[in-house]
Amino acid sequence: MIVLRRLAAGIGAATVLLTANITLADVPLQSKWRYAEPYSQSGPRTTEYLLGLGALQKIRSRWRFKDSEIVAAELEQITWQVQEGFTAEEGIAWLRARLPENASLLFECEGRACGSSAQWASRVFEERVLYGHDDRQQYSAWRLSNADETWTLVLYGIDRANRRHFIRLDRLLHLDTEDAPAS
Predict the structure, then answer these.
(1) SS in 3 state form for the chain?
(2) Does the pLDDT value for residue 46 go beyond 80?
(3) Averaged over 131-156, what is the pLDDT?
(4) Backbone angles phi, psi at 54, to 5 degrees
(5) pTM value?
(6) pLDDT tens, 111-141?
(7) Is residue 183 classed exposed, middle or buried when 0-12, 13-18 and 19+ CB atoms within 10 A define those classes?
(8) By C-alpha distance, which of 76, 75, 82 is closest to 31?
(9) From CA 130, how far away is CA 9, in angstroms rounded?
(10) 27 pLDDT tier (thresholds 50, 70, 90)
(11) Position with higher pLDDT, 2 vs 87
(12) What's CA 32's distance to the chain center, in Å?
């Protein structure tokens, strides 16, 4: 069943098609938001993912998260470039509105409260195109569980000085400890 919904965050009357009963497995890795195009994509691959649960800050001359956890997971990643006339903030709002109701927010930050966007781009996501204005970034991490699976979703949006806007989604399917990669 297909439902038409209005896009949030100032898009006005524009509409998109989405599935009526969105489950975690349906959280898109292919852009369904028609105002963004895939820029890069990788995965799935098994990894130990350092999940940021606090701002990036320089501690004893090293960039670290204020708080974090390591997640053994099957990781899929996609970065979208937002079309001209729209912002990363609008795309993030669109994605967040489609998260299942049982999604629990682990951490979020906006602007300079997130730390340096250069560090997010190079150290966290290892994708230079995600470098932009420190005050025009946002990050959130979400946890979703059902009887069989636990997922973590990471959303990051950045507006660059050249008026290009990008959204990053990391989708992690948690592995049982016996399936986790060897240290």
Answers:
(1) CEEEEECCCCCCCCEEEEECCCCHHHCCCCCCCCCEEEEEEEEEEEEEEEEECCCEEEECCEEEECCEEEEEEEEEEEEEEECCCCCHHHHHHHHHHCCCCCCEEEEEEEHHHHCCHHHHHHHHCCCHHHCCCHHHEEEEEEEEECCCCEEEEEEEEEECCCCCEEEEEEEEEECCHHHCCCC
(2) yes
(3) 90
(4) -165, 170
(5) 0.79
(6) 999 988 998 998 899 999 999 888 899 999 9
(7) exposed
(8) 82
(9) 21
(10) low
(11) 87
(12) 15
Distance in Å from the first CA to the final CA of the chain: 44
Average the pLDDT over 136-165 and give the result: 90
Sign of the torsion formed by the C-alpha atoms of 128, 134, 140 and 141: positive
Q: Which of 135, 118, 131 is nearest to 56 (CA)?
A: 118
92, 167 contact by CB (below 8 A)? yes
Q: Which of 7-16, 52-61, 67-76 reaches the highest mean pLDDT? A: 67-76
Give the list of residues 6+ apart from residue 7 with CB closer than 8 angstroms, or none: 14, 15, 16, 33, 90, 94
Q: Which residues pair with 159 in a beta bridge?
A: 165
